[in-house]
Amino acid sequence: MTQKLEWTDLAELAERYSAAWIARDVDGIVALHTPESLFVSHGRTQTARGREALRTAFSDVFEIYPQFGVDTHRLLFGDTHWVLDWTLSFEPPGQARRGFRCVDVVEVSDGLVARKDTYVDTAEARAAMWSAQ
């Protein structure tokens, strides 16, 4: 069982993690994960384990969603995790900005992200991607 973390430690890690995503800093994101960390993108078939697989998966996110952005709705903390309710926004070249709702469940172990599950509103994602074409 993972030991309960101080709220301030989780909040500080969540802030650094969010800043790396907003900066589209793949190396910075990956550095905040444990070596065997897992990323599961529910609603898609993507699962990645380990830092190299994470690097590829996160790079793909920024390629698929040009001008990737995060609009935070809620950030909730538990003993060893946080939950982020957010909108993934993006802007294809020459087109209007659009987005879709997501929820992340981020588990922490030894001060690093051990697992990130992203749940996507697939109907909104399809509509956003369809209007991008």
- Give the oligomeric state of the chains in this entry, treating copies of one chain as homo and distinct chains as hetero: single chain
Distance between the termini: 46 Å
Give the low-confidence spans: none
Rg computed from alpha carbons, rounded to a whole number of angstroms: 15 Å
In CATH terms, what is the fold-level topology? Nuclear Transport Factor 2, Chain: A
Topology pattern, helix = H, strand = E:
HHEEHEEEEH
Class derived from helix and strand content: alpha+beta
Q: What CATH first level would be assigned?
A: Alpha Beta
Helix content: 25-40%
CATH architecture title: Roll
Shape: globular
Strand line-up in the sheet with most strands:
2-1-6-5-4-3
Care to count the β-strands?
6
Strand content: 35-45%
What is the overall pLDDT average? 92
Largest sheet: 6 strands, mixed
